User: Which sequence fits this backbone?
């Protein structure tokens, strides 16, 4: 792979395949995926349930290992790395937002946001966390536990946590999936706002067409293959027929 | 970072009560060990302390000759205190009256344990030179002279003895006892070469020194010398002390096993709750080392808190118990070191070894779990968890009890339970296929739930059943032990023995008892005789054997022989039939084994210079620890009636009866029938002495009282341990119920969404738990009966029998208990709305 191409790429994927062994035999989830995401791009990955979106997300984020093919994350090839090295890479470059928020329910909002900064050894983690929570409009909820926050507030905490270490790449798995329409929009606004401010590359898995439209690119998973689609041109045609308007 | 995060996580989870279960479990384990270790040591010292008063020392060497001075030097080197006593029979004279007495000649320092009880009260003094203290009946027999002659010397009769601390229980000791200084023996001239003297060397000191002394000296003793401690031999309290110690150990082990089981379950839950946290942390780049440090530190903090609380709890337990004990026992403060170290060791070993498997799984949670929630990472074989848990339980058990028998018995019961449950789990799954998935009524829903969660239920069954097994076992053992002691010391156990009853006195004595409304026990005729031949082979004494003579060794002294028509109540026939023909004899099993006597052997006795030959018809076991007259040999009346005999009997006299007679007969006029403080002696006893001057009256009331006190203390400790085991059982039940909550929550959410009514769900939940509890109850009874069989036969020497009522009570109780617990725990879930359930379960 050309060094010039890798230099400008946040994520580069060549001939990626992922198969798993099931009771019925070998199931190939991803087939011959090729992808190049430039730094600062925002990419939505759409597709019906079971199409392999989350599997792809896991591979791109160095959480899983492909059956074959290669992935470069910010110029670093993932295949030679062991688990510890992948963890170190994620610590430096990657962040996440989850559908189910994944907050630690025994820690306060402030402590949850501090976590990635503490893992990375950032000295003023607390101050940075406070600033992030203020940024997402939760300065009055620093000491509250997740169960004391609404769904939207919890996701805002998760967003603050995701951005505290200024990641190169942000992976978001259905960030509005557990939220109602109004809150979902607010979260989406916040997400894209912060993303633009920090020039992070955003990889977003979603069913929400409106959310997907806000990304610069839309990719569709279909039967293990990844295709680039324009939302406007394929609004009424498969394979997006299974995706829903929010 | 990991350390500060560990501290933060610990603080928060503690504040929110999420660590309650695991901390309680560790606390209970540590409290059980440290508290019980201290309480049981306090009680054992108390019991042994009281028990050693029965032998007036911690250890005794009983010898027919003076022992080597080097032995006494060894004792001194080890820091032991010792006194030397002599005991021999001799005649004393007063004017024209004379009496055979048992002389106790003692050194200054006697008694090392206990006190001499005079009629005027307890004393620490001893007779002065040229002084003799005497038992009441000697005074009665000689008419209370001012002095008596013993050998070549004259002694002033000064104080009247009620009881010597090491008088023991020997109703055959018909001679009254006198006490004198050992330094005065030589001048009496009664001890000549060939005189029969018993030398009693009494020792006291700390346990370690006594053990060292025993190890060095016991091998040096010959067959005529005896090493005596409170647990050796057949003293009334020996059996009680041994059994009490074993029970305390066993029950403590079971309490520890239960607490460890609770830790295992709580640790599993603790780790499962952190699966998502670990996945999320790894996603954000936490290294394996950081995760290990974080959760290792977190678990250490939990453990340290549990240990701290457990040690405090153990201390409070000991403090509380000391209030319930007599002051002289409460004053004793056992050393802290062993209980402290045991408690800390237990906390660390149990927390880490029971958490090791769940913790390994936690650390191996993959980061991909954030996207695929079903992932649980490394599937280590359950055999590892099993091995670690059993290893921990065995190690802790041995550290506490220092007994492999007890430890392995408990572990075997646990293993059996595991095997039974695996089989049952398999059967449940197979049977459940036919039940189907009908949900039209609560029972069907409950059965379907059991089948669906077969594996999880099998695990829960382990916990429920284990708790019930241990509870049943401890309950049964405690009750059996208390019953055994109650039999040994019934409410109105005889506190007086009468010996030397002449045949002519038998009826008048009976009339006397009837007139005083006193119920006397069986009258045993007693004849002195010596066993001289077995199957025609002449027997030699131990001394002759020591001197090098060849021959079969017999019993070197006269025996007390008796006759009975029926087997005595506290005897058990082991072989043969109880005396039917006139020439048959029944032999005690210990003597039979020692002399190599079997059924059909011919025994020759010499009684009053006449030979009597009888045939061994039966061998019987005797419960020597009961306060009843016991005999090595029992004949028929036809065999012994031709010989001159006296009889013995016993009776119970309460204080009221003792004083009643005084009110009808007025004040005693004989000034020497008064106690030293001027109060009249027990009127009935006085009347007995006056009416039957040749009958010897032995007061065992004080000893019975002491024995009762020991048993009360032991009962207290048994009850205490039972309560601890109860708490531990409850904790396991709660922990197991807690363990299944997450799955149950999801199920309830789905069923509610599809329209199941609150009544249906509550009833089905209750029934499911009830079924689990009922099955656990049945399993518990099976394992408990097996465990009790092992324990009673191998450890406690108690009678074995089936506990038939348990087969009904245990399943019903188990069902009720688990159902109540399960419904109580699920009540919050059952009262939630559909949306709340769905939200919580997602």
Assistant:
């Amino acid at each position: 792979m050309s060094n010039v191409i890798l230099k400008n790429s946040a994520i580069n994927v060549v001939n990626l395949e992922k198969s798993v062994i099931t009771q019925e035999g070998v199931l190939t989830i991803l087939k011959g995926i090729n992808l190049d995401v430039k730094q600062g791009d925002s990419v939505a990955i759409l597709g019906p349930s079971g199409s392999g979106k989350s599997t792809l997300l896991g591979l791109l984020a160095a959480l899983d290992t492909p059956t074959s093919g290669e992935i470069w994350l910010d110029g670093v090839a993932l295949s030679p790395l062991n688990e510890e090295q992948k963890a170190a890479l994620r610590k430096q470059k990657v962040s996440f937002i989850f559908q189910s928020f994944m907050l630690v329910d025994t820690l306060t909002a402030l402590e949850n946001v501090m976590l990635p900064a503490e893992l990375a050894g950032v000295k003023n983690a607390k101050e940075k966390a406070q600033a992030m929570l203020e940024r997402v409009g939760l300065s009055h909820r620093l000491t509250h536990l997740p169960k004391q926050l609404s769904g939207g507030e919890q996701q805002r905490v998760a967003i603050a946590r995701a951005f505290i270490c200024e990641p190169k790449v942000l992976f978001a798995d259905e960030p509005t999936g557990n939220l109602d329409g109004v809150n979902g929009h607010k979260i989406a606004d916040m997400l894209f706002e912060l993303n633009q401010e920090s020039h992070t590359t955003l990889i977003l898995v979603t069913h929400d067409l409106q959310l997907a439209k806000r990304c610069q690119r839309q990719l569709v998973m279909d039967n293990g293959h990844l295709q680039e689609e324009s939302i406007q041109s394929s609004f009424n045609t498969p394979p997006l027929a299974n995706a829903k308007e929010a | 970072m990991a350390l500060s995060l560990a501290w933060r996580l610990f603080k928060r989870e503690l504040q929110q009560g999420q660590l309650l279960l695991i901390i309680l479990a560790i606390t209970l384990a540590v409290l059980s060990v440290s508290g019980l270790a201290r309480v049981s040591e306090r009680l054992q010292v108390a019991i042994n302390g009281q028990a050693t008063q029965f032998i007036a020392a911690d250890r005794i060497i009983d010898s027919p000759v003076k022992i080597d001075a080097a032995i006494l030097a060894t004792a001194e080197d080890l820091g032991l205190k010792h006194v030397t006593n002599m005991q021999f029979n001799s005649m004393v004279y007063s004017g024209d009256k004379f009496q055979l007495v048992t002389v106790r000649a003692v050194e200054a320092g006697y008694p090392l344990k206990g006190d001499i009880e005079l009629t005027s009260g307890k004393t620490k003094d001893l007779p002065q030179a040229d002084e003799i203290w005497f038992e009441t009946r000697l005074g009665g027999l000689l008419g209370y002279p001012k002095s008596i002659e013993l050998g070549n010397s004259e002694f002033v009769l000064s104080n009247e003895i009620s009881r010597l601390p090491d008088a023991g229980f020997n109703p055959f000791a018909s001679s009254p006892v006198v006490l004198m200084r050992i330094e005065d023996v030589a001048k009496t001239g009664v001890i000549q070469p060939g005189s029969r003297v018993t030398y009693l060397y009494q020792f006291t000191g700390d346990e370690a020194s006594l053990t060292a002394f025993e190890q060095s000296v016991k091998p040096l003793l010959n067959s005529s010398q005896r090493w005596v401690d409170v647990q050796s031999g057949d003293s009334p309290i020996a059996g009680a002390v041994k059994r009490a110690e074993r029970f305390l150990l066993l029950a403590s082990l079971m309490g520890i096993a239960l607490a460890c089981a609770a830790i295992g379950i709580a640790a599993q839950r603790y780790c499962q709750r952190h699966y998502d946290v670990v996945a999320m942390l790894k996603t954000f780049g936490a290294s394996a080392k950081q995760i290990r440090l974080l959760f290792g530190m977190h678990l250490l903090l939990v453990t340290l808190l549990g240990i701290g609380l457990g040690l405090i709890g153990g201390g409070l337990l000991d403090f509380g118990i000391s209030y319930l004990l007599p002051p002289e026992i409460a004053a004793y403060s056992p050393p802290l070191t062993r209980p402290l170290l045991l408690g800390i060791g237990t906390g660390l070993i149990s927390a880490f070894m029971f958490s090791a498997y769940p913790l390994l799984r936690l650390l191996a949670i993959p980061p991909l779990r954030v996207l695929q929630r079903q992932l649980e990472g490394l599937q280590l074989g359950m055999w590892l968890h099993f091995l670690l848990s059993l290893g921990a339980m065995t190690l802790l058990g041995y550290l506490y009890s220092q007994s492999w028998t007890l430890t392995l018995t408990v572990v075997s019961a646990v293993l059996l339970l595991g095997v039974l449950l695996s089989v049952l789990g398999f059967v449940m799954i197979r049977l459940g296929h036919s039940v189907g998935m009908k949900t039209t009524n609560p029972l069907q829903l409950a059965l379907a739930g059991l089948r669906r969660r077969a594996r999880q239920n099998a695990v829960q069954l382990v916990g429920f059943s284990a708790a019930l097994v241990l509870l049943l076992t401890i309950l049964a053992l405690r009750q059996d032990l208390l019953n055994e002691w109650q039999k040994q010391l019934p409410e109105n156990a005889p506190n007086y023995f009468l010996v030397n009853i002449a045949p002519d006195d038998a009826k008048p004595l009976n009339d006397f008892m009837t007139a005083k409304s006193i119920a006397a026990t069986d009258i045993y005729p007693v004849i002195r005789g010596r066993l001289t031949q077995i199957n025609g082979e002449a027997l030699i004494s131990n001394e002759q054997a020591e001197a090098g003579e060849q021959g079969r060794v017999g019993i070197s002294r006269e025996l007390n022989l008796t006759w009975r028509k029926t087997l005595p109540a506290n005897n058990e026939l082991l072989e043969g039939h109880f005396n039917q023909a006139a020439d048959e004899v029944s032999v005690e099993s210990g003597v039979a084994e020692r002399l190599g006597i079997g059924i059909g052997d011919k025994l020759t006795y010499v009684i009053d210079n006449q030979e009597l030959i009888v045939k061994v018809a039966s061998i019987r076991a005797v419960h020597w620890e009961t306060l009843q007259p016991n005999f090595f040999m029992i004949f028929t009346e036809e065999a012994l009636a031709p010989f001159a005999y006296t009889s013995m009997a016993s009776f119970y006299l309460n204080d009221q009866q003792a004083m009643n007679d005084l009110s009808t007969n007025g004040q005693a006029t004989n000034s020497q029938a008064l106690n030293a403080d001027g109060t009249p002696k027990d009127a009935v006893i006085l009347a007995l002495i006056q009416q039957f001057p040749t009958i010897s009256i032995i007061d065992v009331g004080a000893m019975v009282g002491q024995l009762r006190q020991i048993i009360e203390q032991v009962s207290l400790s048994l009850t205490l341990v039972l309560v601890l085991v109860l708490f531990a059982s409850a904790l396991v039940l709660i922990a197991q119920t807690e363990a299944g909550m997450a799955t149950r929550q999801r199920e309830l959410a789905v069923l509610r969404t599809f329209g199941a009514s609150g009544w249906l769900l509550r009833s089905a939940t209750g029934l499911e738990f009830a079924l689990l509890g009922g099955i656990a109850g049945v399993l518990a009874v099976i394992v408990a009966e097996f465990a009790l069989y092992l324990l009673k036969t191998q450890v406690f020497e108690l009678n074995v029998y089936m506990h038939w009522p348990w087969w009904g009570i245990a399943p019903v109780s188990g069902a009720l208990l688990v159902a109540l617990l399960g419904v109580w725990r699920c009540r919050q879930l059952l009262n939630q709305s559909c949306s709340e359930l769905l939200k919580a379960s997602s």
About this structure: The first strand of chain B starts at residue 59 and ends at 63. The CA atoms of residues 469 and 728 of chain B lie 12 Å apart. Chain B touches chain A through 29 residues (CB under 8 Å). Residues 661-681 of chain B have pLDDT under 50 and may be disordered.
